[in-house]
Design brief:
heterodimer; A: Rossmann fold; Rossmann fold; 2 domains; seven-stranded mixed β-sheet; five-stranded mixed β-sheet; 14 strands; 38% helix; globular; B: alpha/beta; six-stranded parallel β-sheet; two-stranded antiparallel sheet
Chain lengths: 338, 334
């Protein structure tokens, strides 16, 4: 919260893609063992310009335009990591992580454990979730829950340029493998980012808005939906607390539970599919930790359990919207235990 | 059979034989320990293929690395890992290379530049590329030698990895151990080509067929590939034709193979063949017997040591999932 407040005081604003780009520039300058590899990332700077300018600064050995070989580059990333480099593997679209699952789940996540702690895998795999713009079912998925389910991984999903930069810098310095998922529609969104060096610690949630009446836990796009809903409800003097988890694994349950103990009401917002999703995990963790404090049943606001459809009218129905978050909050406010 | 390298002294050749005997003795004991229910899961013996790993690793320098497979004990021994720490790992002991968390299929020893055994078939073929490129980035001149089998040669990842290795000119040496069978599937039914080495042409780097039961030939072709890789000329694919004499694994002993085929390959046993070669060159029979006995004694001592070493304590299962990190909030990753 303090660092976020500092950021608000700083004058400089960047888009999220600029903030991520700056993080890569800074970390590549800081540590010559950092390399980036991906499709169209060098000369072109990436489809969304997250890697722009890196080739000119750091050369083709560290900024590698790869063949279209997602599994290959993910595996190469694991290999570079275990000999002590710090690879950042870019997935052009994060759905393509399906092609890398063996390398991410069977290799990156497990190499340390299988070696009895004698190897570290400082590996980052990152890419955009491209939903909300009609990219259809193979370019729009929010698959974060899969990675939360694989012990050994860290999962980060920033909602603001400030967090994106600070989290990516931490992720690159982490000795553990990080799945870093970005929402494409947030790339162009501007926000304060101080010019001074900073990092955002992994495993620390950020209270994006304080409130006494209900706790909304969210991440990435869900944070923006929750904040919009909170602003609307504030007109009726309902004060909603919005907690941005920032990292799904590890989860800052302390901050969430502390909030729920005050509000007694929990809504979780996620753009992932409902069944087996991260929202369910948050509810379960809060039930374990703070059951006594819950005054009403927690509510999950999630995507529907369908692939993401193409047509705007359909995609809008599948993905959670502000009105869904509003309805969720109203439900926890109105519902009373029998 | 390749001629011994010029100036190769007797001690070097005897060491190759001793290494092969160590692998044979180690695998034989491991199979027994499995039968005695002292080893869990399974053991995938390297019996019959000893010349591949021993010849290939003899061509590596101390700065070079290997990746290995589920059938990895031979690679580990050939790379110089300690028998007792390997045996302790396979017996699930805390003193093992992986504190008893990896077992037979995952022995890893960074102090020996052994990047890890990978039980996903073809899984380490891309890891080798990144490791090789990473070494270069760090200013080191190490080469990464990646072992995989004929079964792995039909995995998609190998295509991506080999192509990536080629375009990066990565210092990688691929050694395809064609042991003729992928569990119950003969190589001839899994591919229409007779030499897997031919695939290298599709990636624009050399493919070489070697007699995998000839330790000196393996050493020679690997040395050439390592020199190319170190000189920045890119990868090589070596196909080592060999045979696994034993069943796929201790836990999967159903064997569909024709006994005549086994006999044919037993007659080409890489260890006996090399021992005969040394005998022909003047090594006394007593010395050859001594080497075999030495290997067995070393393995027996390793087993004894490992069996006496403590088992991991409950509580250790939650250790080693994450590395300690100053970038993550304290207490979150334990």
């Amino acid at each position: 919260m303090d660092s976020a407040r500092e950021a608000l005081l700083s004058e400089r604003e960047l888009t999220m893609s600029e903030a991520l780009n700056e993080a890569l520039h800074e970390e590549m300058r800081r540590d010559e063992k950092v390399l980036v590899i991906g499709e169209d990332i060098a000369g072109m700077g990436g489809l969304f310009q997250v890697t722009a300018g890196l080739l000119e600064q750091f050369g083709a050995r560290r900024v590698i335009d790869s063949p279209i070989s997602e599994a290959g580059i993910a595996g190469a990333g694991v290999g570079a990591a275990i000999v002590g480099c710090r690879p950042v593997v870019e997935l052009q679209i994060s759905d393509f992580v399906t092609l890398t699952m063996d390398q991410v789940v069977n290799h990156a996540a497990k190499w340390r454990y299988m070696s009895g702690g004698r190897v570290s895998v400082p590996f980052v795999i990152r890419g955009p979730i491209s939903n909300g713009i009609g990219m259809a079912a193979q370019h729009s998925q929010s698959l974060e829950a899969w990675f939360v389910h694989a012990p050994g991984l860290i999962v980060a999903m920033p909602s603001t340029p400030y967090d994106a930069k600070g989290l990516l810098k931490s992720a690159i310095r982490e000795p553990n493998p990080v799945v870093f998922l970005e929402k494409r529609l947030l790339y162009s969104r501007r926000g304060p980012v101080p010019a001074e060096e900073y990092t955002v610690p992994i495993g620390v949630a950020d209270v994006k808005r304080a409130g006494r009446d209900a706790t909304v836990v969210a991440y990435a796009q869900g944070v923006h939906l929750a904040l919009q809903a909170a602003r609307q409800l504030a007109r009726d003097e309902v004060e909603v607390e919005v907690i941005d988890v920032r990292t799904l694994k590890p989860l800052d349950l302390e901050t969430i539970a502390e909030s729920v103990r005050r509000t007694g009401r929990l809504v979780v917002v996620s753009e992932g599919a409902r069944a087996g999703g991260f929202a369910s995990e948050v509810v379960a963790r809060v039930v374990d930790e703070a059951w006594d404090a819950l005054r009403t049943a927690p509510v999950r606001v999630t995507a529907k359990d369908t692939p993401i459809p193409y047509a705007a009218a359909l995609e809008r129905e599948v993905l959670p919207q502000v009105e869904d978050v509003l309805a969720g909050i109203k439900e926890v406010l109105e519902e009373v235990h029998a | 059979m390749a001629a011994p390298a010029a100036g190769a002294d007797v001690a070097t050749l005897e060491e190759l034989l001793l290494q092969m005997w160590r692998i044979r003795a180690f695998e034989t004991r491991a199979m027994q320990l499995f039968e005695e229910k002292l080893i869990r899961g399974s053991v995938h013996p390297y019996i019959g293929m000893e010349a591949v790993a021993v010849g290939a690793c003899a061509a590596l320098g101390p700065q070079d690395y290997i990746t290995s497979t589920h059938r990895g004990h031979g690679h580990c021994i050939a790379k110089g890992l300690e028998l007792r720490l390997m045996m302790a790992e396979i017996l699930g002991r805390e003193a093992g290379y992986c504190r008893g968390k990896g077992g037979s299929m995952h022995i890893t020893a960074m102090d020996h530049n052994m990047l890890g055994a990978d039980a996903i078939v073809a899984g380490s073929t891309a890891i080798a590329v990144g490791a090789a490129h990473g070494l270069r980035l760090k200013g080191e001149d190490g080469v990464v030698l990646c072992f995989f089998g004929d079964g792995a040669s039909n995995q998609g990842l190998l295509h991506e990895a080999a192509n990536l290795a080629a375009v990066l000119d990565a210092p990688v040496v691929y050694v395809c151990e064609n042991n003729q069978w992928a569990i119950s599937t003969p190589v001839a039914t899994a591919t229409r080509i007779s030499d897997i080495a031919d695939r290298a042409a599709g990636y624009g780097f050399p493919g070489v067929v070697a007699d995998g039961n000839d330790v000196l030939e393996m050493r020679e072709v690997t040395a050439e590939a390592v020199a190319r890789a170190r000189a920045g000329e890119g990868p090589t694919l070596i196909e080592a034709k060999s045979y696994r004499i034993t069943p796929h694994s201790a836990a999967t002993q159903t064997d569909l193979r024709d006994p005549a085929e086994l006999d044919e390959w037993r007659a080409r046993d890489p260890i006996l063949r090399f021992a005969r070669r040394l005998a022909d060159d003047g090594t006394p029979a007593s010395r050859l017997e001594e080497l075999e006995a030495q290997a067995k004694a070393e393995v027996d001592a390793a087993v004894e040591w490992a069996l006496e070493s403590p088992r991991p304590e409950p509580g250790q299962e939650i250790e080693d999932v994450y590395a300690p990190s100053e970038w993550t909030a304290p207490g979150r990753l334990s």
